[in-house]
Design a protein that fits this description.
Elements: H1 4-14, E1 18-22, E2 25-29, H2 30-46, E3 54-58, H3 63-74, E4 78-81, H4 88-98, E5 102-106, E6 118-122, H5 125-130, E7 147-152, E8 162-166, H6 167-181, E9 189-191, H7 199-202, H8 204-210, E10 213-216, H9 224-234, E11 237-241, H10 243-256, E12 263-268, H11 275-285, E13 289-295, E14 298-305, H12 307-311, H13 318-322, E15 327-328, E16 332-337, E17 350-356, H14 367-373, E18 374-375, E19 378-387, E20 393-398, E21 403-405, E22 408-410, H15 412-419, E23 425-435, E24 439-448, H16 452-460, E25 471-474, H17 488-495
Parallel strand pairs: 1-10, 3-4, 3-5, 5-6, 9-10, 9-11, 11-12, 12-13, 24-25
Antiparallel strand pairs: 1-2, 7-8, 13-14, 14-15, 16-17, 17-19, 18-19, 19-20, 21-22, 23-24
Helix pairs in contact: 1-2, 1-8, 2-3, 10-11
Length: 497
C-alpha cells in the first residue's frame, strides 16, 4: 500500500482540520495539504518522473517539506531525504548515488548542488507555480516491498550507505508505534524540532493518519524557549529528540523556570541516554518520555521502553530497566548472538540481532554491504548488548567501540555512566588508546569542572580497577555529527596528535 493513502483519507474525512503550521501560523488545512501534494505529483509526472524514480529533498524543516514528501509518494516515486546540515559535497554524493531525478532544496541550500539533477528551490516563484499545477486524482499503486524512502546513513566510518525503506517497512513501524510506543489522536500536535530527514520525519506518518497538527518551529531548529512556547500554545505536543536535545531542553527549562506545559510525549533515541540525564528530565517534566531503539536498517523499530517504565521508581529493578532500551517491538524478533549468530544466555553480552517486518531488504546498489549486514534473515546491528529474563535489552556499545584491555572487555558506556554521576561533569565519552602491554587502555574525555583526582576516586569506588580510565582529558565540548552523536573517531585521532 502506498502510504500517501493516509493523507488522502485524512483529507477526505477531515479536510477542514488544521494541518500545517509554521510557528503559530497555520498555512494549510488537511484539504489544502492534500491538494498541494497532489499538485506536486502532477508536476512531477509532467517532468517524466515515473513510479520507482527517486526524488530528493534537501530542505530545512518547513511545512513545504511534508507537501513535497507526500507529492513524491502520490506520484509513486521514492523520497530521498538529505539532512539540511550536510555540506553540499556530501549532498552531491547522495544525489549521485541514489540517481535522483530532481531535488527540492531550501533556497540557501540550492546553490552548489544538482549537477545532472534538476533543482527546485523552496520557497520560490517556481515552487509556488508547482503547487498550483494540475493535480493527480488518485494515489499511484505501490506494493509493500516497493521503495518508499531511501535513507542514507551518517557515514562516520566511510561513505554513507543508502538504506532501502519500503512502504511495508514504514507501515510496520507506524503501526508498532501505536501498539508499543504511544497512541496518536486528532487533537495531538507533532512538533518538528529535529531534522525531518531522519526519525522526526518518519514520525509524520502516524500523525497524518490521525489527522493531527504538524508544527515546524519558525526558527527552523532546536530553540528551547521557542519549543516551550509552542508546546504551551498548541498543547498535546509530541516530538522526537536525541538524548543531547533532551538534556538541553531540561537544562533550558530549569533556567527559564518553565515546567513544559503542553508537552505530551517526547520520544528519545539516536544515542546513549544516561540514567542521570533521564532521571533529571523526568523529575522536571514528569512522565512524558518514551525511549525507542532502532537503526536506519530497522527504522525506529527494534525495541521500546514505554513512559510508565521510564517514569517508574517503585520497581525493585527500576534503575536497570531505565538503563535499558526496552523490549522488542511487536513486528520484530530480537536476539543477542555470539560471533556466529547463535543465541547466548540471559545477561551475556553479544551482538544485537533483529528480524521482522520492519527490517530492510538491503542497501541501495551495495550487495557487499548487504551480505555483511543481513545473515540468514537477521540484521546484524553491530551493537553489543544483553537481554535479561524479562526481555529487556541493554545496550553496551557499538562493537567497534568496545575496549579490550589485558584481554578483558570494557564497555565505554558503563564508565561514562559513572563519570556522569559527578556533578562537575556535564558530558563524557570514553575511548580506547593503543597500549604496548595491555593492547588498549581506557581514556576518558569530559566536559566540566571536576578534577582528575575526583574522577579517579569516583571510578575506583564504582567499577573494577581495570575499567578505570588511565587518562582523563578535559575538553570544551565533545565533537558531534549533525545528528548529535559523539564522534569517537575524532576523539581517538586527538589522542594521536
Amino acid at each position: 500500500m502506498n502510504l500517501a493513502h493516509w493523507l488522502a483519507r485524512s483529507a477526505q474525512s477531515g479536510g477542514e482540520r488544521p494541518a500545517l503550521f509554521l510557528g503559530g501560523t497555520q498555512v494549510a488545512t488537511y484539504a489544502e495539504f492534500d491538494a498541494r501534494a497532489r499538485a506536486v505529483a502532477g508536476w512531477l509526472r509532467g517532468q517524466g518522473v515515473t513510479p520507482g524514480d527517486r526524488v530528493a529533498i534537501f530542505m530545512k524543516n518547513t511545512p513545504d517539506y511534508l507537501i513535497v514528501f507526500y507529492g513524491i509518494w502520490y506520484a509513486g516515486a521514492a523520497v530521498v531525504p538529505i539532512n539540511a546540515k550536510l555540506h553540499s559535497r556530501e549532498a552531491e554524493f547522495i544525489l549521485h548515488d541514489s540517481g535522483a531525478r530532481l531535488v527540492f532544496a531550501s533556497a540557501g541550500l540550492a546553490e552548489g548542488i544538482g549537477q545532472g539533477c534538476q533543482v527546485i528551490a523552496t520557497p520560490s516563484d517556481r515552487f509556488d507555480a508547482i503547487v498550483g499545477s494540475d493535480p493527480v486524482h488518485a494515489v499511484t499503486d505501490r506494493a509493500a516491498d516497493d521503495l518508499a524512502w531511501l535513507f542514507y546513513t551518517s557515514g562516520t566510518t566511510g561513505k554513507p550507505k543508502g538504506v532501502i525503506i519500503t512502504h511495508g517497512m514504514a507501515l510496520s513501524m507506524a503501526l508498532c508505534y501505536g501498539v508499543d510506543v504511544d497512541q496518536v489522536f486528532a487533537d495531538d500536535t507533532a512538533l518538528y524540532a529535529a531534522p525531518m530527514s531522519h526519525g522526526a520525519g518518519l514520525y509524520n506518518l502516524m500523525h497524518v493518519q490521525a489527522g493531527a497538527r504538524h508544527v515546524c518551529p519558525a526558527s527552523g531548529g532546536f530553540d528551547v524557549p521557542e519549543i516551550l512556547d509552542l508546546a504551551e500554545r498548541f498543547g498535546r505536543v509530541h516530538m522526537f529528540a536525541a538524548p543531547t536535545m533532551v538534556k538541553r531542553l531540561t537544562d533550558g527549562a530549569r533556567t527559564l523556570d518553565r515546567s513544559g506545559t503542553g508537552l505530551r510525549t517526547i520520544v528519545y533515541a539516536g544515542g546513549p541516554m544516561y540514567n542521570a540525564d533521564i532521571i533529571d528530565a523526568v523529575n522536571h517534566f514528569g512522565p512524558v518520555f518514551v525511549q525507542i531503539y532502532g537503526q536506519g536498517e530497522c527504522p525506529m523499530g527494534i525495541t521500546a521502553l514505554p513512559r510508565a517504565t521510564v517514569s517508574d521508581r517503585a520497581h525493585p529493578n527500576w534503575r536497570a530497566r531505565l538503563g535499558s532500551v526496552g523490549r522488542a517491538q511487536s513486528a520484530v524478533e530480537v536476539r543477542i548472538g555470539d560471533a556466529n549468530g547463535r543465541p547466548v544466555a540471559d545477561g551475556v553480552a553479544g551482538e544485537i540481532m533483529v528480524r521482522g517486518q520492519t527490517v530492510m531488504p538491503g542497501y541501495w546498489n551495495n550487495p557487499t554491504a548487504t551480505d555483511a549486514t543481513l545473515k540468514s534473515g537477521w540484521l546484524m546491528t553491530g551493537d553489543v548488548g544483553t537481554m535479561d529474563a524479562e526481555g529487556f535489552v541493554t545496550l553496551q556499545d557499538r562493537s567497534k567501540d568496545v575496549i579490550i584491555t589485558g584481554g578483558s572487555n570494557v564497555y565505554p558506556r558503563e564508565v561514562e555512566e559513572v563519570l556522569l554521576e559527578h556533578e562537575g561533569v556535564t558530558e563524557a565519552s570514553v575511548v580506547g588508546r593503543t597500549h604496548p602491554d595491555w593492547g588498549e587502555e581506557v581514556v576518558a574525555f569530559f566536559v566540566g569542572t571536576a578534577s582528575e583526582v575526583e574522577l579517579d576516586a569516583l571510578c575506583l569506588g564504582r567499577i573494577a580497577r581495570f575499567k578505570r580510565p588511565k587518562t582523563y582529558v578535559r575538553i570544551d565540548s565533545l565533537p558531534k555529527n549533525n545528528y548529535g552523536k559523539v564522534l569517537k573517531t575524532e576523539l581517538r585521532s586527538m589522542l594521536n596528535r
